[in-house]
Write a structure and sequence with these properties.
alpha/beta; 13 helices; lyase; seven-stranded mixed β-sheet; Aspartate Aminotransferase, domain 2; pyridoxal phosphate; four-stranded antiparallel β-sheet; about 400 residues
């Protein structure tokens, strides 16, 4: 029986040993890591893949014909192929970038907005999926329902403005809500808009299907998918990428250069100037292997258990309020909490870390318009993933409740 088959048969609690950080202690307490919406922990197989680049290759890619360079190049392109398979896209539609932020800025650059162009955004867009459009276009925001979902009637009204771009967030990093992506992207396309989707929070949780969607550009990040930081992808329709201009030019993006002209390489290399994060690509490929070995159906089932634990524990604590829907449908185990009357939650977050070993995040979560609108100040976000347990969720919320009681 293969390793992949083993993982599919085992309960997810058994994988905790794959993540070295979970062996750490803080003041005698085991780390309770609930900050996966910021960045996920890395399994040992990913760490080993990154190390392997330095111990077996340490050569640049696409730059020479010696053995180490060719082997390094093959593994780099293998990682690209794995992204393509994961997202059901073509390999030449996968552009390696540093992160989701760079991916969205590159999509913006390819599209070439003017201030006369309308861009439809949602209130829960991350700053990375809001500021590029605000800087270059004329942004209009979709109203939200009481469940903090996009109001589809208002969305339809905004589409009558004939926006050039509709910028959607598949899963909110604040509320954990999934939007009706298929419905909204189809509506946008029928209105003649290009659809740009931030999938940073969803790619590690749900299978994406780029080629059979109405999405024109899709952005993901390795570090939110069990992989290394420093690498992400812009996945774009090939015809749009061929017509677009790269943000950076230099080594690696041209077939030839004369004193007064140059010729770009074919996709995807046209957009990948300079030496990339080669070692990170190896880790990204290993992370995808790890996710596939578990299976997205099992990931989703496990996350429903975690979300159920969150909801039941929060409902028993009157001092805590939660942004977003308190149901198991169409949500990730991402819960942003606020305490009425307490605007700065920094000390509470520090107490959770240093006294209870609970690692979570406070602030506006790079979505300040949304958080200010609903919470009027900071929130504390607890975000779980495949290596977390129901016991950890319950313990973290009991700890938070205890700390909060000393503030209210």
């Amino acid at each position: 029986m293969s390793i992949c088959e083993d993982k599919k048969l085992e309960g997810l609690d058994s994988i905790r040993g794959d993540f070295p950080v979970l062996a750490r202690e803080v003041d005698g307490r085991t780390v309770n890591y609930l900050d996966s919406a910021a960045t996920t922990l890395k399994p040992q197989s990913v760490i080993d893949a990154v190390t392997r680049y330095y111990t077996e290759f340490t050569a640049n890619i696409h730059r020479g014909r010696h053995r180490l360079s060719e082997e390094a190049s093959d593994r780099y392109e293998e990682a690209r192929y794995k992204v393509a398979l994961l997202t059901n896209s073509a390999s030449n539609e996968v552009i390696f970038v540093r992160n989701t932020t760079e991916a969205i800025n590159l999509a913006n650059h390819c599209i070439g907005l003017t201030k006369d162009d309308f861009v439809v955004c949602c209130l829960d867009n991350h700053h990375s999926h809001f500021l590029p459009w605000l800087r270059h276009g004329n942004v209009v925001l979709v109203e939200q329902t009481e469940e903090m979902q996009p109001d589809l009637e208002h969305f339809a009204e905004l589409l009558k403005l004939k926006p050039k771009v509709v910028a959607l967030t598949h899963c909110s990093n604040v509320t954990g809500n999934y939007i009706p992506l298929d419905v909204m992207s189809k509506m946008a396309h029928e209105a003649g808009a290009l659809v740009v989707v931030d999938a940073a929070q969803s790619a590690a949780h749900r299978k994406l299907n780029f080629s059979e969607s109405y999405i024109d550009f899709l952005a993901i990040s390795s570090h939110k998918m069990l992989g290394p930081s420093g690498i992400g992808c812009l996945i774009g329709k090939a015809d749009l990428l061929r017509d677009g201009e790269p943000m950076l030019v230099g080594g690696g993006v041209v077939d030839y250069v004369t004193a007064d002209s140059y010729q770009y390489r074919k996709l995807p290399h046209k957009y990948e100037a300079g030496t990339p994060a080669i070692e990170a690509s190896y880790g990204f490929g290993a992370a995808i292997d790890y996710l596939e070995s578990i299976g997205f159906d099992r990931i989703e089932a496990h996350e429903k258990q975690l979300s159920k634990a969150f909801i039941e524990s929060i409902n028993n604590k009157p001092n805590l309020a939660c942004l977003g829907q308190m149901s198991l449908e169409n949500r990730a185990p991402i819960f942003s909490l606020y305490v009425k009357g307490v605007s700065d939650l920094s000390d509470i977050c520090r107490a959770l870390s240093d006294s209870y070993g609970v690692m979570c995040r406070n602030g506006h979560l790079c979505a300040q318009p949304l958080v200010d609108h609903y919470a009027g100040g900071q929130v504390i976000r607890m975000s779980a993933y495949i290596y977390n347990t129901v016991d950890e969720i319950e313990a973290a919320l009991e700890a938070l409740n205890s700390v909060v009681q000393s503030y209210v």
